[in-house]
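Hi R.,

Here are the chain sequences for the assembly we discussed:
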Amino acid sequence: MRNVKKFLGAIVMSLFLLVSGPVLSVIATEAKVLEIWDIYYEPNRDPVVEAAIEQFKQKYPDWQVKRTSRPLEDMKMAVMAALSAGVGPDVVLVNNGEQMMGPMVRAKQIINLDPYVEKYGWIDKLFSPGLWNRVRYTLDGTQFGEGSVWAVGLDAELVGIYYNKEIFEELGLSPFESLEELEEVMEKVKGAGYDPLAVGVLDDWQFFHLYGALQHAALANQMGADAAQEYLDDIVIRSKPERSWQEQGNIDAARILQEWVQKGYLVEGFSALSGDDSTQVFLAEETALLLQGSWDSSQVAKADFDAGFLPFPPLEKGGEFPPQIGGMATPLGISAYSPHPDIAAEYLNLLVASDRTVELQLEMNVLPALVPAPLEGILEEELYYDLLTSWNKAAELDRIGHFLDWTTPTMWDTLGEAGRDLLLLQITPEEFVKKVEADYRAFVLSKEKKE
Amino acid sequence: MHTQKSTTRKKVFSVLLPYLYIAPMVVSTIVFVIYPFFINFSYSFVRWDGFGKKVFVGLQNFVQLASDERFWSAFQSNIIYLFFIVVLPIVLGLFMASLLARSLSKSARFLQTIYFIPQVVATIALGTIFRWIYAPRFGVLNKLLELVGLGRLAKPWLGSPETAVVAVGFIGTWAWLGFCIIIFVAGIQKIDPCLYEASLLDGAGSIQQFFYITLPELRFEMPVVLIMTTVQCLGSFAFAVVQTTTNGAYGTRPIALYAYQLAFVEGKVGYASAVVVILTAILFGVALLNTFLGEKGN
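And here is the predicted structure of the full complex:
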């Protein structure tokens, strides 16, 4: 009998613990806790977030901060589950476009940040006007790229070409100012026994950058740089039905890419290298050039050789500065279920716009959201100087190009597959563009149908 | 009166006790398996982006699947993986287990342990290791080929539609061969040696012994191996290996990874659920077929 009592006692205790968990969590929720779900766990972003949290705690000593940081897809799953159930954090991951932002705006799960944008003066000091369009949606969530601001990113990203200054010096090469000069450089590098350009398309995203950079330059050559920017904004974020991928610039870019493959300008085995692998190939001095984003600048800066960074050049020497692929870091917004949105906005402001954030970003070779990025104290021969000046120029001209996979929800797959076929010379440039256009048209039509 | 009450309590308790013992497993199965399965099943009839309202679309998701090229491409990959993750490990496992089980030497036990090692390595680590083995520039495989004078055969194994599926499939063979060997060795070792001795007297050779004694006596081990490898082929193993090697490029994407892509990249949760329902149905089919064949064999 004593055993029975003990057993029942254990059950009662277990039930108590089961029930007390949620009760305690409710009590904890009622306490002053700011909950943050972000994806800024990388070594060059995490310290910035921690510093912002520290500043927040100093400003609001009676508040606690609970932060969770995970990779993008994991965090997206958590956000989907939480917000659909009407719970979740105060500050939440809101990836751009139809990936997350559009559905979240339509489901009224995040709040409009316009009042905070105005209160903190974000638009005047952060990013370029065009870049802000990438976190805008109309209030009904039907049109991307227009309307209100729903999220803000921590820092900026820019894709360009890193080059090995020592190989350049050894071969008597100068930084290129046009596509023609870039091709001359690659020819000489190849002649000297190096592979010219490090790029890895196994996981697709670097193909989007490679093709995208050429496409942006080819379109600028075809229709003028500002018109090209407008065209790119229209197809990538606004999904304008009157626009089409059947443009000569798009075909030209695909053709140039196939020529590069045939001439052996891309690193040997590029089809089986991932985007991250390509940076390692460049760091191992196997190639003279690397097409990569600013996010790898810290790694490149620590290389055993001096490296420089150049924006992707126009097709012809003296041509207009073409739109450069770039954007803001995957942004954060404020949950509509947050009981204290003003406090959450206060944290966001400390995170994206405080002096400490910029200071840390400059220390870690990260592109700050602040424009123009300050150049004081940075030596002209440093890689970071090249990066900041390229960024400042693109931001000043408001010519920040696009990550092409944003175009439609299925574009990653379509462009990835068509891109692999293009690089393996299994389809023509025209067929490549036709495949991409088919995906774009299907999305535009389905969008019109829904509306 | 008191004694009668106490006896009744004890009786009730003794009846309830077994249920209490299995309660944690039952509850966790309901929470983590049965409930998600039914939720997923219900999602397969809706259009849902994961955030907004769910719109009931009936069987539309399933109808759409029939003409979805990407689904059939993933299905085809899975068929190829069935050969590499199920058929090949079983065939090779039977052969190697037959050799190892009869040997009493310490080296045989050592070899069994070596073959089993891939099973204790995390699948994600397996994928990463093999990505480097297959790497075009610094990979061990290409370097080895160059070393033995077969440099002309070196290629970007994961970066070509001709070799990527096979290269990924081989990781499955390597990973699951050890599991098959261990199970089959255990099965062979419990076969009565008299059967082999009697067959020898009847003039049976090794091959006849294998087909008429070893293979039929493994009728209980075979379903275990078949189910385990099939589940891994259609489920988490192929998913993780592909994600860490090719991320689905060059026709390597299995159905599970396609469902993930649909749900968490393209925001088609309802459609992805329909894909998962089909995947589950295939698994159930294999399990039922296996049970049927097992019973028939018995």
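The interface with chain A takes residues 6, 9-10, 13, 49-53, 70, 131, 134-137, 156-161, 246-247, 249-250, 261, 264-269 of chain B (CB under 8 Å). The domain at 60-297 of chain B is CATH 1.10.3720.10 (MetI-like fold).

Let me know if anything looks off.

Best,
T.
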